[in-house]
Write a structure and sequence with these properties.
- This protein is 48% helix and 15% strand.
- The chain contains 11 helices and 9 strands.
- The protein has helices spanning 17-34, 38-44, 49-57, 76-88, 96-110, 113-125, 240-276, 288-316, 322-346, 357-365, 375-383; strands spanning 130-133, 149-153, 156-167, 174-180, 190-196, 202-207, 218-229, 278-279, 282-283.
- The strands form 3 sheets. It has a 4-stranded antiparallel sheet with strand order 2-3-7-6, with no helix packed on it. A 3-stranded mixed sheet has the order 1-4-5, covered by helices on one side. The protein has a two-stranded antiparallel ribbon with strand order 8-9.
- Helix 4 crosses helix 7 (240-276) and helix 7 runs parallel beside helix 9.
- The protein is globular, with a radius of gyration of 21 Å.
């Protein structure tokens, strides 16, 4: 079975023929440049920057970026296809969506014209890899508790503080720093300021060791009297929280889309394994309990696929609400974790071995319930609409 195709009964209408042609291009790139090397990158705990340059040359970075800045001016469906191909191959170290779909939109919308001209073409080419620094030690998902601060000094900002759990942190050439510019104003005193790699006082800490997503570089970042030009401020001073709230639904949809494809692919691999693996004189699939469990998982995966595509279609038409994105992220990651755990169990001891993809996917998926806003935060967002 082609594991990128949906199971029977879930024909998808969200993508058109041009989208699917692009999927063919993306898949060929992944099979050639990503899949043969990803296990090595997991052991090295980082993806080489050269891969980003190759992806940029293929047009796989920043597909939604305006053509005048080096992008394709495409709709979010093209970004969704890249996300799905990452999930299809379980290439969890590939940070393209964070760069293209989460960080770059802030630059394109809120940076000054001069900064856009300077940075965006290089981001589309993979010459600049981006990150966004929100989380701090002891802060968790509570953005208003940010302690990193910036003060104005003439024509510059001076930034002090530290961040942790920053994806793309080792590779990043530019990071958006979420910081307080009015410390007494809570969430109304937050600004977004860009810091370039090599700026004096900006240092990258260790590449953090994680229980999953081993190829994804995740770092501590430190800011010690980091001086940057005033024009590195994104948008208006003290308006950063409103920008984050407006862009977070897309980040949560990215996570939900990834969960949907991961469930479908890993379920099909488990079905194939169950039909091939023999125990007690028959295949794992021959046991009624296992067939019933797989049938249950198929129904659940189908159900979430329909909801995920509904949210994707809404977003492509500008209609995805904050609470619906939270629902997609909550349901997708919780279901993905349960489904992958059931699939791992059906693999028996092999499922716990890193040589088997299901075990790696299971460990990689666990962070989905945490990053992008924890499941508990998603419930809080949804509860406010009740």
């Amino acid at each position: 079975m082609d594991t990128a195709a949906p199971p029977a009964g879930t024909a998808r209408s969200v993508f058109n023929a041009d989208h699917e042609l692009f999927r063919t291009q993306v898949r060929r790139f992944f099979e050639r440049e990503i899949v043969p090397h990803h296990r090595d990158w997991e052991r090295a705990e980082i993806v080489p920057r050269e891969v980003w340059l190759k992806a940029g040359a293929e047009g796989l970075l920043c597909p939604m970026m305006a053509e005048e800045h080096g992008g394709a001016g495409a709709d979010f469906g093209y970004a969704a296809i890249i996300i799905e191909e990452i999930a299809r191959t379980n290439a969890s170290g590939i940070g393209f969506p964070l760069h293209s779909d989460i960080v770059v939109p802030y630059i394109e919308e809120f940076a000054t014209p001069a900064r856009r001209r300077e940075w965006l073409p290089r981001m589309a080419k993979g010459e600049i890899i981006t990150a966004i620094a929100m989380t701090e030690p002891g802060m968790g998902s509570d953005l208003k508790a940010v302690k990193t601060h910036a003060r104005r000094d003439g024509s510059d900002w001076i930034i002090n503080g530290s961040k942790t759990f920053i994806s793309n942190g080792q590779n990043c050439g530019l990071v958006i720093v979420v910081c307080k510019t009015d410390p007494g104003a809570g969430r109304k005193g937050i600004s977004l300021i860009c810091v370039e790699e090599g700026t004096p006082g900006f240092t990258k800490g260790r590449n953090l060791e994680k229980i999953g997503m081993h190829a994804a570089d995740t770092s501590e970042l430190f800011f010690d009297d980091v001086r940057v030009p005033a024009e590195n401020l994104l948008g208006e001073e003290n308006a950063g929280f409103s920008y984050l709230i407006r862009n977070l639904p897309q980040e949560r949809l990215v996570i939900a889309i990834r969960a949907a494809m991961s469930m479908e692919v890993m379920l099909q691999k488990t079905i194939d394994y169950a039909k091939d693996r023999k125990v007690f004189g028959q295949t794992v699939f021959d046991f009624q309990h296992n067939r019933f469990k797989l049938a249950e998982l198929r129904a659940q995966a189908n159900m979430f696929r329909v909801f995920s595509d509904h949210c994707l279609a809404l977003h492509m038409n500008g209609g995805l609400s904050i609470d619906l994105a939270a629902q997609a992220k909550l349901l997708g990651t919780e279901m993905q974790n349960r489904l992958l755990d059931d699939c791992l169990q059906m693999h028996g001891g092999n499922g716990y071995m890193a040589d088997y993809e299901i075990g790696r996917a299971w460990a990689d998926a666990r962070v989905g319930r945490i990053y992008g806003g924890s499941s508990e935060i998603m419930k809080e967002i949804i509860a406010r609409t009740l």
